[in-house]
Design brief:
- By secondary structure, the protein is an alpha/beta fold.
- The protein folds into three domains: about 300 residues, no CATH class; about 80 residues, no CATH class; about 110 residues, no CATH class.
- Helix content is about 55%, strand content about 10%.
- It contains 21 helices and twelve strands.
- Strand 10, helix 14 and strand 11 form a beta-alpha-beta unit.
- Helix 16 packs across helix 18 and helix 16 packs antiparallel against helix 19.
- It is globular, with a radius of gyration of 28 Å.
- The two termini are about 25 Å apart.
Length: about 525
């Protein structure tokens, strides 16, 4: 079997995110440790408030650890180690490829830090099953011949339902469609796991957690169910403090929002005046952000309502409930951490550290063959219309192309001759210039009609462009942000995971300021 190429790429993002990736903007972000010695000292500081190990006892039911993940968690507690975390909202079939990329990035950073500093480190994936963004979570996109197919759950009866309470009627049909779209597979376990987890009797959040645990626990990555009562109980002190200090937090966020804009950046999260950073809502009910004016009364009647954190409060909660030394973040998350620091300061709690994840495009052999046939590079597929036009132009009969070139040349020459001949300017020069533009416009319209005709006629060629574009830049977006990861694992299995882990570890090694150890265990041989 020929394996795909795993191409590590710049993470991208807004100017604010890019500056954060470069380690700038120290006024809004805590500084990253610069070398192994700095990392060791930093990890020791993070572990101290949690050195009793009670945090794991509190969160164990929400983590449900097994196998290698449990072994790493137990070792961290025994030796007073730390957590490297990342996370994502629950999504159908595990979500886009970047879900897996983030998990492997956290694993790689944990591995490198543990190897270089000697401090036990465990990666934890925060499964945000308490989120309620149905549009983002309810679909899975897969590349097929000619384009992209999107599998989508039926809309719920009412909006604002957390993913942990969201039913999945008839999801088995979508599972079958996913299996068909995977084509030839070498790793049936990848699809078997999906079939076990995504059933009409389960909620989307529960299926997501079970799916990720089955995939990530053998790698040593623990998965935390954010909607579990154990998480809510552990987070309650922060949530109550955020309600009690809602007015101060709102002011701090407004000031940070204005400061970011004054510096020429666009804040990632809009500032919504008069709303706290805490959601309230019972099981199965619509989540609502608690208004600042109601914050004190909401805190007083706890536990009558289920409380949860919004996106700017969640990293602070995470840092509070476990020894989270760093959160491995995507481009948007890195940008909003500029606002997280203001919240932490207002609550007098530690500011969490965000580390940029790695980024990837997976170039499968069949797609690489298509590109070679098309004479195109992966970057050419960012705008498939351009390559379609080029291929259509190359397909136009040579006689037609020559005739159009001669026609354009003759028009230019004849109008130019007319301008020279009309030395007395019997008609205004602008009129002749308008004539040139009009005639050339008609020629260009005719050429576009020929190109459109060739696109219609060359259906296989255009289908090949569509297939390649769907695999690399579906809908004009990065592959990792759109395409579901299950088909990749089904087609290439553990070998693909090994390739991805190597790239993730190279990225993490550079971040830590370490050198690759000659005695480091090869990725493929680790648990």
């Amino acid at each position: 079997m020929t394996l795909p190429r795993v191409i590590r790429e710049p993470l991208g993002g807004s100017p604010l995110s890019s500056a954060a990736q470069r380690g700038e903007l120290s006024q809004w972000y805590i500084p990253r440790p610069r070398n192994v010695g700095d990392w060791r000292a930093y990890l020791q500081r993070v572990s101290q408030p949690h050195d009793t190990g009670a945090w794991l006892a509190n969160l164990a039911p929400a983590l449900g650890p097994t196998g290698a993940a449990k072994e790493r968690l137990d070792r961290v507690v025994e030796t007073r180690g730390v957590v490297i975390s990342t996370g994502q909202q629950a999504a159908l079939f595990g979500g886009p490829l970047y879900t897996l990329v983030k998990a492997l990035a956290a694993l790689a950073l944990a591995d490198v830090l543990q190897r270089e500093t000697g401090i036990s480190t465990v990666p934890v994936f925060w499964a945000a099953t308490d989120d309620a963004d149905f549009e983002e979570a309810s679909s899975a996109s897969i590349a097929v011949v000619g384009g992209v197919r999107t599998l989508r759950l039926a809309s719920p009866s009412h909006a604002g339902v957390a993913m942990n309470d969201l039913p999945m009627p008839s999801v088995e049909q979508l599972v079958d469609e996913l299996g068909e779209a995977c084509g030839s597979t070498i790793e049936p376990q990848a699809l078997d796991l999906v079939r076990e987890c995504y059933r009409s009797t389960a909620t989307l959040g529960a299926a997501y957690v079970t799916h990720l645990r089955g995939l990530l626990a053998p790698l040593g990555i623990a998965v935390l169910d954010a909607s579990h009562p154990g998480v809510r109980n552990a987070a309650e002190p922060v949530l109550l403090r955020a309600l009690e200090s809602a007015a101060q937090v709102e002011r701090a966020l407004r000031q940070r929002f204005d400061a970011i804009r004054a510096a020429g950046h666009t804040p990632q999260v809009d500032h919504v005046p008069e709303l706290s950073l805490v959601f309230a809502g019972g099981a199965g009910q619509e989540k609502r952000r608690v208004p600042v004016r109601e914050a004190a009364t909401t805190a007083a009647r706890r536990p009558a309502e289920v409380l949860s954190a919004n996106v700017l409060l969640r990293p602070i909660v995470e840092r509070f409930i476990m020894p989270s030394a760093a959160y491995v973040a995507g481009p948007g998350e890195l940008a909003y951490f500029a606002q997280v620091g203001a919240v932490a300061a207002a609550l007098d709690l530690p500011t969490p550290l965000a580390m940029p994840r790695w980024s990837v495009t997976i170039l499968e052999p069949r797609i690489e063959r298509l590109l070679n046939q098309l004479g195109a590079s992966p970057d050419d597929l960012r705008d498939p219309h351009q390559i379609e036009t080029r291929l259509a132009r190359e397909s136009v009969p040579e006689e037609v192309s020559d005739s159009l070139r001669r026609l354009r040349h003759d028009l230019e020459s004849d109008v130019a001759a007319l301008e020279v001949s009309d030395g007395d300017e019997l008609i205004p020069p602008a009129s002749l210039q308008g004539l040139r533009r009009s005639l050339l416009h008609r020629v260009e319209r005719t050429e576009r009609r020929y190109l459109a005709a060739m696109k219609r006629r060359e259906t296989k060629l255009m289908r090949d462009v569509g297939t390649a574009a769907a695999a690399l830049y579906p809908g004009g977006k990065r592959q990792e942000r759109v395409l579901n990861f299950v088909p990749f694992l089904a087609r290439y299995g553990q070998s693909l995971l090994d390739l991805m882990r190597r790239e993730a570890e190279s990225h993490a090694t550079a971040q830590v300021g370490a050198t690759v150890s000659a005695t480091a265990t090869p990725v493929a041989e680790r648990v």
